[in-house]
Amino acid sequence: MKEFKYRKIGEHSRVDESLFGTAFERDVLITGKDTVMAMWAEKKQRSCGDVSDTILLHNDELMKMKERKRRMLAREAERRKKEIAKLNNEDSLMDSIRNKALEAKYEQRDEVKKMNQMILHGKVNTIRDTQIEQKRQWKAENEAMEKKLDLIMDIALIQGIHQDEEKELKRQQKLKAEAAMIRSQIAEREAKRQLELEERERERQLLVKQMEALQIEEQKTRDQKEETKRMLMNEINSHNAKFSKEKEERQAERLKEDMAIAEYQREKAQREKELEDRKREMMAAKEKEIAALYAKHEKVMDKQAEMDALRARRAMDERERRERLKETQEKERLGRINAELAEARQKQHRDKVQTLAQMAVADQEEFDRMARVQRESEKAEKKKREEEQLKRHKHAEELRRQIEEHEKAKLQRKREHIEEAIRLKKEQEEDRKTLETIKVIRGVIKSHEE
C-alpha cells in the first residue's frame, strides 16, 4: 500500500506548521470482502480437502484482469509522474517563498508577513483540495475494485456451487451406476446360485441313480454270491453224499472183501484141512505102501527099499516145502493186497479230508474276502457320505458368509449414503449461512458507505 507524506518548509522557517498538517500513514481497513474471501476459502478447503485455495478462472477472464491491472498500473505511474513534476514546481515555488520570507525576515515588514501568510494559506488550501480529490479518486477506485472483487467472488461462488452441483450429479449418477451394478451382480449371483442348485440337483439325481445302480449291482453280486454259495453248498452236499455213498460202498466192499477174505481163509483152512487129511491119508497110504514094500522087499531089496523110501520121503518133503512156500507166498500176496487196500483207503480218506479242508478254507477265504469287500465298500460309502456332508456344510457356510458380507456391504453403503447426505445437507446449510453472511456484510458495507 502506498504511503503519502506532506512536504514542509525548512526546519528553520517561521511559517506556522499547522497550516501544512502532519505526516500520516494510512490505516489498514479490513473490509467485508476480506471476510467473505476467508470464509469462502475455508469452505472450499473443507469441501475439497487438499485442493489449493486459488480461485479458478477462465483464461479469457484472467487475461482481462491482467490487462486491467496493467492499465491501472500505467495510469498510476502516469499520475505519479505528474505529481512528481507538480511537486517539483511546488518546491521551486516554496524556495522562492522561503527567499521572500527570509527577505521579509530581514526586512521585518508586516506587509510581507501578511502576504506570506496569505500565500501559504492558499498553498495549503490547494494541497488540501488536491489531497481531498486524490482521496475521492482512491475511494472511487477502491470501490470499483471492491465491486470487481465482489463480482469475481460471486462468479467464483457460483462456479463453486455449479461444481458442487456437478459433483452431486456425478455422485448421484455414480450411486445409480453402483446400484445398477449391484443389482446386476445380485441377479448374476442369483442366476449363478440357481445354476449351482440345478447342477447340484443333477449331481444328486446322478448320485441317486449311481447309488441305485450300485445297489442293483450289489444285489446282483449278493445274488450271485448266494447262488455261488448255494451251488457250493449243493456241490459240498453232493460231495458229501457221494463221499457217504463211496464210504458206504467202500464199507460194503470192505465187508465184501472181509467176507471174501473170511471165505478165502475158511476155504483155505478147509483146503489146508483137506490137504492135511490128504497128506495124512497119503502118508498113511505111503506108510502102508512103504510098509508093504518094506514087507515085500524086506528081504530081497533091503538096500534098494531104503533108497526108494528115502527118495519117497525126500519127494514128500519137497512137496510139503513147495506147499508151504506157496502158502507163504499166498499169505504175503494177501497181506500186500490188504496193506495196499488199507493204504489206498487211508490215502483216499486223507485226500478227501484235504479236499474238504481246502474247500472249507477256500469258502472261508471267499467269505472273508466278500466280508472285507463289503466292509471296505461300506467304509468308502461312509467316507463319501461324510465328505459330501462336509462339502455341503462348507458350501452352506460359504453361502452364509457371502450373504453376511453382502449384508455388511449393503449396510456400509447405506451408512455411507446417509453420511454423504448428511454431509451434503451440512454443506448446503453452510453455503446458505455463508450467503446470508455475505448479504449481511454487504448490507453493513452499503449502510456504512451511505
Automatic annotation (TrEMBL):
Coiled coil (UniProt feature): 63-90
Comp. bias intervals (Basic and acidic residues): 314-335
Record family assignment: Belongs to the CFAP45 family.
Residue segments, region Disordered: 314-337, 371-415
Species the sequence originates in: Neospora caninum (strain Liverpool)
Protein name from the UniProt record: Cilia- and flagella-associated protein 45
Pfam families per UniProt: TPH
Recorded GO CC terms: motile cilium
Localization, UniProt: Cell projection, Cilium, Flagellum
InterPro entries with a match to the protein in the record: CFAP45, TPH_dom
Keywords of this entry: Cell projection, Cilium, Coiled coil, Flagellum
Domain Trichohyalin-plectin-homology: 106-439
